[in-house]
Specification:
Helix content: 25-40%
Strand order of the largest sheet: 3-2-1-4
Shape: globular
Number of helices: 3
CATH topology: Rossmann fold
Strand content: 25-35%
Largest sheet: 4 strands, parallel
Structural class: alpha/beta
Length: 115
C-alpha cells in the first residue's frame, strides 16, 4: 500500500518505450505509479521489472474505451488512496500503419478499431 507522503501518477501507454521510461522516472522520484496499457503481456513484464524501483500497479486497459479508463482511474485510487497526476502517453496508432480508425457498424455506433 502507499505511504502517506507519496504522490500517485497514472501513466497511460506505460508498458513499453517512453511510457515505461516515464514510469521508471516517477518511481525513482518516489511516486506511486499506476501503468495502464492495452498490451497486457508487455505491461506484466514491465511491472515485474519496475516494482524493484517502487510501488507500481499495472492495469490493463484501452484509452479508446471510456469505461476502461474510468475503471483504471478507480483502481488507481483504490490501490494508492489518491491520484495526483496523469500522463496521457498512450497513442491510438500503429507505428507502421498510422492512426487507428473506429469503424462504424450498420446502426451508426462505433464498432471495432482497424488500421
Amino acid at each position: 500500500m502507499t505511504q502517506p507522503h507519496r504522490r500517485t501518477v497514472l501513466v497511460t501507454g506505460g508498458a513499453r518505450g517512453l511510457g515505461r521510461a516515464l514510469c521508471a522516472r516517477f518511481l525513482r522520484a518516489g511516486w506511486n505509479v499506476a501503468a495502464m496499457d492495452v498490451d497486457a503481456r508487455s505491461g506484466t513484464a514491465a511491472a515485474r521489472t519496475l516494482t524493484a524501483l517502487g510501488p507500481l500497479r499495472f492495469l490493463a486497459g484501452d484509452v479508446a474505451d471510456e469505461a476502461q479508463v474510468r475503471d483504471c482511474v478507480g483502481e488507481t485510487v483504490r490501490s494508492f488512496g489518491a491520484l495526483h497526476a496523469v500522463v496521457n502517453n498512450a497513442g491510438i496508432a500503429d507505428p507502421y500503419q498510422g492512426p487507428r480508425k473506429r469503424s462504424r457498424s450498420s446502426d451508426g455506433t462505433a464498432g471495432s478499431q482497424s488500421t
